[in-house]
Specification:
10 helices; TPR-like_helical_dom_sf; Serine Threonine Protein Phosphatase 5, Tetratricopeptide repeat; mainly alpha; 70% helix
């Protein structure tokens, strides 16, 4: 039985919507330096650094790709997953190497409760950007919903290794540790 959480859709959508416009991978801009800062467990202003990472990941280098990304995000914000999927699919057709296009569509598939297609797009995202902690968080959520707890734990741990500050990641790891040890929630 799939565990439904009322908070999942808004939280996952926030990853897409928080990024104002996200680079194809971590090879451009200041992303490697930002990710190094984010790994610091004592970083106090991690939210600012996280926003900068999302901003960099959102830069496709193409005005038309950026427009498709924004239109898809706007559709997600309105709760129109089908329109978002259409925009993100057009984006992927236009810029297939742009990791954020795949991640955004994965989020839209998740919102539409099509986990199989969401998982495929997460795989494509991580193939283009293995440091995409938001994709790993999405993977953890899906695996947990599918009650694949060991896979979920591995995804959450991978996200935590890149971004140790997120409370939702810490809570998920604690929850799964209790579950895998047989402690009732």
């Amino acid at each position: 039985m799939t565990i439904q959480r009322n908070i999942l859709n808004p939280v996952v959508a926030a990853f897409v919507l928080l990024a104002p416009a996200a680079a194809a991978d971590t090879h451009g801009g200041d992303v490697p330096e930002l990710l190094e800062q984010l790994r610091d467990p004592d970083l106090e202003n991690w939210q600012r650094v996280e926003r900068q990472v999302f901003r960099e990941w959102s830069r496709s280098g193409s005005a038309s790709a950026d427009l498709l990304l924004q239109r898809g995000r706007d559709a997600l914000e309105r709760g129109d997953a089908a329109a978002a999927i259409d925009h993100f699919s057009a984006l992927i057709d236009h810029a297939p190497d742009f990791a954020e296009g795949w991640n955004a569509r994965a989020t839209a598939w998740f919102m539409a409760r099509n986990y199989g297609l969401a998982l495929n797009d997460i795989r494509e995202t991580l193939a283009r950007n293995p440091h995409h902690f938001a994709a790993l968080i999405g993977l953890g959520r899906i695996m947990e919903d599918l009650e694949r707890h060991d896979d979920a734990r591995r995804a959450w741990e991978a996200a935590a290794a890149i971004h140790p500050h997120r409370r939702d990641v810490k809570a998920a790891l604690e929850r799964l540790t209790r579950k895998l040890q047989g402690t009732s929630l």
